[in-house]
Design a protein that fits this description.
single chain, alpha/beta, seven-stranded mixed β-sheet, six-stranded parallel β-sheet, 20 helices, 35% helix, globular
């Protein structure tokens, strides 16, 4: 009997890749997709895995492997697909040799993202087929099916997941790995070189292939009809299927595993067999708009939201008009997001706040510099945008306008898309100051390595990009490297560099505190020396609290021993009593 084990959705996708015979995987970390690559590295004897500097590169690596004739994949979150859009739209025309699947994780509910965009909309525009599982078992099996269909129809596929699927567990049956023969490479300029004359030909070809796939979708086993009470029929896919089954157990359901292209005949037949048809899909009305355009009467976003995650209770209210009994939640005090105790970003933002500076921010832990009490970051848009935003401000208002501004970006994000932006500043005679907060990891997604850490995804040592030398190679003459916790030198350096009339870079270095597993130094507050001035509280470290008499206390269960509080205390009230080991 085959072994069954509990797996996260992301772990099941990694297992599906292994069982499908994937040979090459490239990815950039992005919650909720990150763990796929971290689970996949378990199979490194059979699958080559890597962290790419960004999603565009990851997609192009996977395309190259496909052209060479092996099954390949790239993983990213939904906003990462924006970065990979250039190769995405072109490989849609090119097709595949070895099977090619891009895993894209959407984030309904905005648990770790700056928007709720729906990957299905992007896929429709790019004319890319999309498969979506509803649990971990399907995640593994549907992933294998995606490669079969990719090769059968000469189409790259998107495998869409969501946060709820990625991080939920389900029983998965383990199977053996298949080893499909590598597809022979054949030089085919018309297929692989997207110059206009060839692209015109390929556009005709993919329209033909998509029609064939849409017809085949009517009979694909991943599209499943469950006929029960015909008074209510529901068309759904992915995680919302689980909510439908919980809220409407007696309803008839058409569960779509392929959500682009849609199986029109199957949908029309199902609709004809039910009295009332509902379409339940999170985010945009992708299925709904197509179904209604075919003249099929259905109810969808009229009663359901385009925002956030769904739930069984939401469906009970909207469809059954029931008000479920819900136990009142306990009163919980507000808990705003904050940087970890000992985070090197905190000392940087404390100095910027002291100097009354503004920061154009970026995607990463350092985005938390926007909230009180640090309140330094004024903008955050997308990966690498901080540098370009600062540049745009200068070109709009002049050099004097940005003298109290800096761009703030992390080391991984700088290598992702910040390099081009810094190059643009130098090329176009900017004068702004860029602060690279180098904590030696991709911190927000769980401490993944990148091109400047000296380790690959597989844990092998490799060349580490010298960020300081890279900045100089781009033409930046003034590059200062400062310990992030040396607040006096940091303050002096910020004043010096922002006063320049040319581009400058400050690299504030200190490893993420969570990377250091050694015993931490121990600090205590001498209450008799405490003047209750609150200076040590200004950076907002969660390990610092005030007693009833307003003297400061340090919670040694939270303190990581960074020493910032002792440095800020001018009265010697905070002392180091035990050095770290």
């Amino acid at each position: 009997m085959a072994e069954k084990i509990l797996m996260l959705g992301n772990e099941a996708i990694a297992r599906g890749a292994y069982e499908a015979g994937v040979k090459v995987s490239s990815a950039y970390p992005g919650t909720p997709s990150t763990e796929i690559s971290e689970f996949l590295v378990r199979y490194k004897d059979d699958v080559y895995e890597e962290w790419a500097p960004n999603e565009k590169v990851a997609a192009e690596v996977a395309v190259g492997a496909s052209i060479a004739g092996v099954r390949s994949m790239a993983c990213m979150k939904h906003v990462g697909l924006n970065v990979a859009a250039d190769p995405l739209y072109s490989v849609s025309y090119m097709g595949v040799n070895g099977g090619l699947v891009l895993v894209v994780a959407d984030d309904p509910g905005l648990y770790s993202s700056q928007n709720e965009q729906d990957t299905r909309m992007v896929a429709r525009a790019a004319q890319i087929p999309v498969i979506e599982p509803s649990d971990s078992a399907e995640a593994k099996e549907f992933f294998k099916a995606a490669f079969e269909l990719s090769e059968q129809f000469d189409r790259p596929f998107i495998f869409r997941t969501t946060t709820r699927l990625a991080h939920s567990q389900g029983l998965v049956e383990l199977c053996d790995r298949v080893e499909p023969e590598d597809k022979p490479y054949e030089k085919n300029i018309r297929k692989h070189v997207m110059m206009p004359v060839n692209a015109k030909f390929r556009h005709v070809e993919i329209e033909k292939r998509n029609k064939e796939l849409a017809e085949a979708a009517n009979k694909l086993p991943i599209n499943k009809v469950e006929m029960n009470d015909t008074r209510i029929g529901v068309i759904t896919s992915g995680i919302p299927y689980q909510y439908v089954k919980e809220a409407l157990p007696e309803a008839s359901v058409l569960k779509l595993g392929m959500v682009n292209p849609l199986p029109r005949k199957l949908i029309e037949e199902f609709a004809s067999r039910v009295d009332s048809l509902y379409i339940v899909e999170e985010l945009d009305p992708v299925i709904e708009e197509q179904v209604k355009s075919w003249g099929i009467q259905a109810v969808g976003k009229e009663i359901l939201t385009v925002q956030g995650e769904y739930s069984a209770n939401m469906l009970r209210r909207a469809i059954l008009k029931e008000e479920p009994e819900i136990r009142a939640a306990a009163e919980v005090p507000g808990r705003p997001p904050i940087l970890c105790p000992g985070c090197p970003h905190r000392s940087v933002y404390h100095v910027l706040n002291k100097l009354k500076m503004h920061a154009a921010g970026d995607i990463g832990c350092y985005t938390l510099g926007a909230v009180a009490p640090l309140s330094v970051v004024d903008t955050t848009m997308c990966m690498g945008s901080s540098i370009s935003t600062l540049h745009g401000m200068e070109k709009a208002k002049g050099k004097a306008y940005i003298k109290n501004w800096v761009a703030v970006i992390g080391d991984s994000t700088f290598l992702h898309t910040g390099v081009n932006s810094l190059m643009n500043m130098v090329y176009n005679h900017a004068t702004g100051t860029v602060m690279i907060l180098d904590n030696s990891t991709t911190g927000m997604t769980g401490h993944q390595d990148h091109a400047a850490t000296g380790k690959t995804l597989q844990g092998d040592p490799t060349y580490a990009v010298d960020i300081q030398a890279l900045c100089r190679a781009l033409g930046v003459k003034h590059v200062a490297v400062v310990n992030a916790f040396d607040t006096a030198l940091l303050e002096q350096t910020i004043k010096q560099e922002t006063a320049r009339d040319e581009v400058s870079v400050i690299i504030a270095q200190s490893p993420c505190v969570l990377l250091d597993k050694s015993k931490k130094p121990l600090y205590v507050v001498r209450s008799e020396k405490c003047k209750k001035c609150g200076m040590c509280m200004k950076p907002g470290c969660p390990a610092m609290t005030k007693a009833e008499d307003q003297t400061v206390r340090i919670d040694d269960t939270m303190c990581t021993g960074c020493g910032l509080c002792m440095e800020l205390c001018k009265f010697g009230a905070i002392e180091l009593v035990k050095a770290g080991e």
